[in-house]
Specification:
mainly alpha
Length: 145
């Protein structure tokens, strides 16, 4: 009787194992030409560090990138002419940091959209509460007051 129960157990496991393995297999996502052309976030970030506005141009925002180049060029000229250099230096650094964050987040978003099946955007953790500035994570309560 023990041998019969052991045989039935082995037979049932042999039938269940392939089905469990098939369910555990990841879904196949075909690579499309959009996925191959998806921007690399690190490349966009490095280009933005190299020259302000170049990362935005890499992401396809040519007008915004050229405008940012012009604004940063004007800030540099005003600093060189010593027109309120300290204020403009702090302002320029702040704008530069926000531009770096923006370019990186935009590149990650474009890459996720290109790699998602059927072009559907993937929900990132914290997207439902993301801040207006595009910073990751939930929006602090104090910002809504």
């Amino acid at each position: 009787m023990k041998y019969l129960l052991a045989l039935l157990l082995c037979a049932s496991l042999a039938m269940v194992a392939p089905a469990a393995q098939a369910m555990a297999a990841p879904a196949y996502v075909p690579v499309t030409h959009e996925a191959a052309d998806a921007p690399e976030p690190v490349v966009a970030l490095l280009l933005e560090l190299l020259l302000p506005g170049l990362g935005a141009i890499y992401l396809g925002e040519v007008g915004g990138g050229l405008l940012f180049m012009a604004v940063m060029g004007l800030v540099c000229i005003l600093i060189a002419l010593n027109i309120s250099a300290l204020y403009l230096s702090v302002l320029g650094c702040g704008i530069r940091i926000l531009a770096l964050v923006h370019v990186y987040n935009k590149a990650v978003k474009k890459r996720n959209e290109a790699l998602s099946p059927h072009g559907e955007p993937q929900n990132q953790p914290g997207d439902e509460n993301a801040s207006t500035f595009g910073l990751p994570g939930p929006m602090p309560v104090s910002w809504s007051l």
